[in-house]
Amino acid sequence: MADSPKRQETVLEIVNQLGLHARAAARFVEVASRFEAEIDVLHSGHQANGKSIMSLMMLAAARGSRLAVTATGDDADDALQALAELVGNRFGEAD
């Protein structure tokens, strides 16, 4: 019997001024897509595919929003670490 896929979870707070807007969502997807793991994002009861810009934008996550991010796959730890760094660095935005 095969082992079930590795699953990791974390909560990330949106700290950039504009929240999870188009450019920030595109950067999130760019980082998430580097990994084989499935990435799911939950905000205010709504779930999004972390590898879909439109899905992420539909969350309408403003500054201060807390996102529950789940990664499932062999590289789940690495994926969450990279996404946490991206979000913590305000998606590379000045503010």
TrEMBL record:
Superkingdom of the source species: Bacteria
Swiss-Prot/TrEMBL keywords: Cytoplasm, Phosphotransferase system
GO BP terms, alphabetized: phosphoenolpyruvate-dependent sugar phosphotransferase system
Boundaries of every HPr domain copy: 7-94
UniProt cross-references to InterPro entries, sorted A to Z: HPr, HPr-like, HPr-like_sf, PTS_HPr_His_P_site
Family label: Belongs to the HPr family.
PANTHER family registered for this protein in UniProt: PHOSPHOCARRIER PROTEIN HPR, PHOSPHOCARRIER PROTEIN NPR
Protein name (Swiss-Prot/TrEMBL): Phosphocarrier protein
Protein species of origin: Spiribacter salinus M19-40
Upper classification of the organism: Bacteria, Pseudomonadati, Pseudomonadota, Gammaproteobacteria, Chromatiales
